[in-house]
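Exercise 7. Given the encoded structure of a 377-residue chain, write a plausible sequence.
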């Protein structure tokens, strides 16, 4: 029973997903379309790969000459350092190599590098990759991989989602260009949102539902992933086409008949969908986090976000410690209004979700996570 529980715990931590080639190509081609020389004479590091079957490695190796790369470096984490190590089997590629080491294959990560034509066929591609074992297990936080980070110009990978905060901090500490995949909810992390607000990082081109492959070959569909990057792309500078507030009130079904609501605890109006952002409102607006997928820094200014203490420029004007949470059937949940402090709260009861009420009968409900924006003048 103890061994079964241990195996279940390891599987529960399993967050290694292999990205499909078409998704990588779609994203990176957007950077190339904006700047055809974005990768020219650059050293690319792929620090969270399994290079023998990684589509990231395949993409850059096959396009090495076309992109004008200087060097490609791809590293993997040792099998024994992964929750998925119970699935591990050395590939035929490794076992048939004279470098194969029965002991190191599980304990050490691997490194693949590409700089030149090693086969003599006049083409630099996947077949010219050199490989060896790393001295350590290949953890990106190790001194060995950090030295590779410092050598690289651009870092591109799909890091473990559970380590996203730490991985992004590792990249930013190295002051590198990058494009990495993460959960869309990472937008609201205290460590991430200020970087977005300061225009130091932004969302890439591709977001939404994607299918990834697991180490055992199974497919896993995730509906809430996106790319985080500081590489420019064209869509980032496409202005949103929007209607006036008056036309939204007349033609947009997402806006209620009584118009745009003002928050009970912020000097801002509620905009429930990106399409409902009015083009002639000069004040502060609270919009869904999906706005960042369409954010144009030439058109809008980001001022903060609810719930994460990232709203100094838009301070909350009220606390709800004297309120309590109530279900729609009128029963209390046992939670106080402290639970909804810093949320974007509206003076309403939609008849569906829980609400908060005080002794005076004042009722409010929380909107979902909101980002505060305003038009640039």
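Solution.
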């Amino acid at each position: 029973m103890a061994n079964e529980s241990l195996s279940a715990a390891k599987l529960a931590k399993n967050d290694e997903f292999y990205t499909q080639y078409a998704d990588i190509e779609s994203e990176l081609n957007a950077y190339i379309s904006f700047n055809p020389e974005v990768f020219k004479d650059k050293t690319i590091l792929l620090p969270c790969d399994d290079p023998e079957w990684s589509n990231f490695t395949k993409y850059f190796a096959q396009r090495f000459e076309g992109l004008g790369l200087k060097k490609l470096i791809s590293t993997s984490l040792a099998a024994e350092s992964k929750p998925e190590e119970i699935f591990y089997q050395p590939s035929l590629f490794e076992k048939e190599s004279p470098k194969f080491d029965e002991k190191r294959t599980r304990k050490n990560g691997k490194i693949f590098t590409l700089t030149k034509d090693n086969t003599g066929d006049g083409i630099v591609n996947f077949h010219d990759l050199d490989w060896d074992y790393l001295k350590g297990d290949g953890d990106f936080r190790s001194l060995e991989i950090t030295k590779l980070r410092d050598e690289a110009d651009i870092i591109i990978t799909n890091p473990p989602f559970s380590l996203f905060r730490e991985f992004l901090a590792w990249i930013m500490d190295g002051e590198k260009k990058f494009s990495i995949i993460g959960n869309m909810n990472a937008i609201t992390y205290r460590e991430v949102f200020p970087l977005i607000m300061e225009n130091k990082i932004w969302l890439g081109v591709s977001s939404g539902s994607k299918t990834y492959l697991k180490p055992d070959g199974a497919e896993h569909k995730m509906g809430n992933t996106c790319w985080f990057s500081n590489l420019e792309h064209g869509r980032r500078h496409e202005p949103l086409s929007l209607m006036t507030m008056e036309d939204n009130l007349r033609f947009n079904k997402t806006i209620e008949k009584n118009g745009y609501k003002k928050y009970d605890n912020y000097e801002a109006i509620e905009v429930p969908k990106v399409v409902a952002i009015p083009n002639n409102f000069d004040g502060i607006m609270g919009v869904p986090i999906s706005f960042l997928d369409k954010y144009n820094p030439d058109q809008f200014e980001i001022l903060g976000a609810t719930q994460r203490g990232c709203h100094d420029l838009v301070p909350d004007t009220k606390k709800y410690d004297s309120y309590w949470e109530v279900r729609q059937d009128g029963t209390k949940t046992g939670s106080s209004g402290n639970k909804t402090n810093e949320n974007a709260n509206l003076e309403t009861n939609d008849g569906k979700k829980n609400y908060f009420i005080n002794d005076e009968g004042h009722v409010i409900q929380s909107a979902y996570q909101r980002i505060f924006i305003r038009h640039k003048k």
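Remark. The radius of gyration is 25 Å. Students should compare their own answers with the one above.
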